[in-house]
Amino acid sequence: MTSGGSQAAGVGGSAFGRGPASAIAAPLQLHAATVVPEWVDYNNHLSEWAYLLVFGDNADALFRFIGIDEAYRASGKSLYTAETHLRHLREVKLGQRLTLTLTVLGHDDKRLHLLQEMLTDSAGCVATAEQMLLHVDAVVGRVAPFGSYVADSLRLIAAAHISLPRPEHVGGCLRIPER
């Protein structure tokens, strides 16, 4: 089950033109969802796995936005998640509307570093997901360079996002602070 609400274009290319980077939202807002009963746990709030589901649907909206659609995946190429760091900042309850943002923090010819934020009207940012994704050619079973259209799309988005402030938690690791 997906969280629905994707606003990106699909088959055959991306949802944005090839104009200047200033026409690209910073951060991107490509997906929204409403918390449904199946996602709520015994504590009466959004279950841990459901955060990842919603962030995954947001990433899928980005993939379609940059040209990684069904046709692209049918060619044997896709993005695989190498690492995800979730931060649960506030409770999310049944029926709350979630808006998601996505920032391209960096990329090279085979990797994509993202920051996603989950927001509610009442509480602001309730969770974040930082991810490292690898572009894979499943036919040969290896990490492979992005296709030129996808690479160009990422360059445009990264140029639009370069001036966004980098949150302090990006690139952090888990630890118990010393006292």
Describe the structure.
With 179 residues, the chain is α+β, with helices and mostly antiparallel strands. It has a single domain (27-161), classed as Roll (Thiol Ester Dehydrase, Chain A). It contains 3 helices and 6 strands. Strands 1, 2, 3, 4, 5 and 6 form a 6-stranded antiparallel β-sheet that branches. The longest helix has 18 residues, at 48-65. It is globular, with a radius of gyration of 17 Å. The model is unreliable at 6-12 (pLDDT under 50).
Summarize the structure.
By secondary structure, this protein is α+β, with helices and mostly antiparallel strands. 21% of the residues lie in helices and 31% in strands.
The largest sheet is:
6 strands, antiparallel
Number of domains: 1
Order of helices and strands: EHHEEEEEH
Q: How many individual helices?
A: 3
* Mean pLDDT across residues: 89
What's the topology here?
Layout (H helix, E strand, L loop, with lengths): L27 E7 L13 H18 L4 H5 L2 E12 L8 E11 L3 E10 L3 E14 L4 E2 L4 H14 L18
